[in-house]
């Protein structure tokens, strides 16, 4: 049951990304090109996703626990540090170079060709590097 | 359907996916967090993460079956730039504990100050990078 829910959630997420144009790096890069050929689609995707999630979370988090698990796994850290800011900055630069954030990169694997496979392999290597660097510090 | 309407509908589906995951498994639908943990040694809850990623991968194929168009676009830059972008995106989201979904959607929906700041920073750096690449360097 848990696996089915996770599969369905991933499927819905991927459908949302594809329908919203987020699996087209041209659309994403044009969104980031606010001084040029601006395409607002990502803003529509993000705004409606945030509103839907905020409304849903309000209802869901009122419960004592999730339906299929013992507890909600929420981050409670609330301070800023160099890892958060530096990480977000590096991610933004990478995002601006190729137009892929992690979700669309994974979702595009079936049709993005060898070049996208290279990006995903390097992204996984980046995750590995980051976990090596931060293990023991967290 | 107008692309902006489709984008709004896409956002609702993404939000629905995030709410479903929180309601049933109590988890944040952050792609980098879900996927990056798959390669961490000694972790025991791999199976739901794998199922989520499989669903994500299957979605464009399902769209292709239904509409004849998977929605997947082709890469815009040459392989060496794809490789560099991949390392930066992976390392950056690993270090900053989140990407567009974890910070940008789920975190902001919870009004997390960390996520608001992270989202501001990666949006600004993304916009800045595209500005430098397109308007100062004339493309990659």
What is the helix/strand order of chain B? HHHHHH
- Overall morphology of chain A: globular
Report the total helices of chain A.
Answer: 6
Range of strand content of chain A: under 5%
Main beta sheet of chain B: none
- Assembly state of the chains shown: heterodimer
For the terminal residues of chain B, how far apart are their CA atoms? 33 Å
Radius of gyration of chain A: 17 Å
Structural class of chain B: mainly alpha
Total E-strand runs of chain A: 0
**Overall mean pLDDT score of chain B?**
94
- State the secondary-structure class of chain A: mainly alpha
The span between the termini of chain A is 32 Å
Proportion of strand residues of chain B:
under 5%
Rounded to the nearest angstrom, the radius of gyration of chain B is 17 Å
Described by the principal axes of the CA atoms, the overall outline of chain B is: globular
The stretches of 5 or more residues of chain B where confidence is low (pLDDT under 50) are none
Largest interface (CB within 8 Å) is between: A-B, 115 and 107 residues
State the share of residues found in helices of chain B, binned by percent: over 70%
Mean pLDDT of chain A: 93
In short:
Chain A contains 6 helices and no strands. The mean pLDDT of chain A is 93. Chain A has helices at residues 2-19, 25-32, 41-60, 82-98, 102-107, 113-134.
Q: Please, could you describe this protein's structure?
A:
The complex is a heterodimer of chains A (138) and B (140). Helix content of chain A is 66%, strand content 0%. Chain A has 138 residues and is mainly α. Chain A is globular, with a radius of gyration of 17 Å. The mean pLDDT of chain A is 93. Chain B is mostly helical and 140 residues long. The radius of gyration of chain B is 17 Å and the shape is globular. Classes of the chains: A mainly alpha (138), B mainly alpha (140).
């Amino acid at each position: 049951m848990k696996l089915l829910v996770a599969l369905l959630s991933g499927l819905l997420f991927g459908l949302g990304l594809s329908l919203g144009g987020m699996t087209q790096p041209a659309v994403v890069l044009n969104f980031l090109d606010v001084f040029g050929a601006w395409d607002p689609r990502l803003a529509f995707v993000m705004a409606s996703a945030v509103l839907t999630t905020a409304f849903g979370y309000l209802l869901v988090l009122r419960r004592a626990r999730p339906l299929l698990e013992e507890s909600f796994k929420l981050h409670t850290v609330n301070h800023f540090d160099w890892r958060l800011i530096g990480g977000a900055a590096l991610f933004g630069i990478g995002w601006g170079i190729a137009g892929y954030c992690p979700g669309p990169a994974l979702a595009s694997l079936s049709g993005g060709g060898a070049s996208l496979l290279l990006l995903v392999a390097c992204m996984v290597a980046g995750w590995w590097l980051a976990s090596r660097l931060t293990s023991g510090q967290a | 359907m107008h692309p902006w309407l489709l984008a709004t509908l896409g956002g609702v589906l993404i939000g629905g996916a995030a709410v479903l995951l929180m309601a049933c498994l109590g988890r944040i639908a952050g792609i980098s967090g879900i996927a990056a943990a798959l390669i961490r040694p000694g972790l025991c809850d791999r199976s739901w993460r794998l199922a989520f990623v499989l669903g994500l991968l299957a979605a464009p194929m399902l769209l292709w079956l239904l509409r004849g168009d998977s929605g997947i676009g082709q890469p815009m830059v040459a392989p060496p730039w794809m490789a560099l972008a991949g390392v930066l995106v992976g390392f950056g989201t690993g270090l900053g504990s989140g990407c567009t979904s974890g910070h940008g959607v789920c975190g902001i929906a919870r009004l997390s100050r960390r996520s608001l700041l992270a989202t501001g920073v990666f949006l600004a750096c993304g916009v800045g990078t595209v500005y430098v690449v397109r308007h100062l360097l004339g493309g990659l």
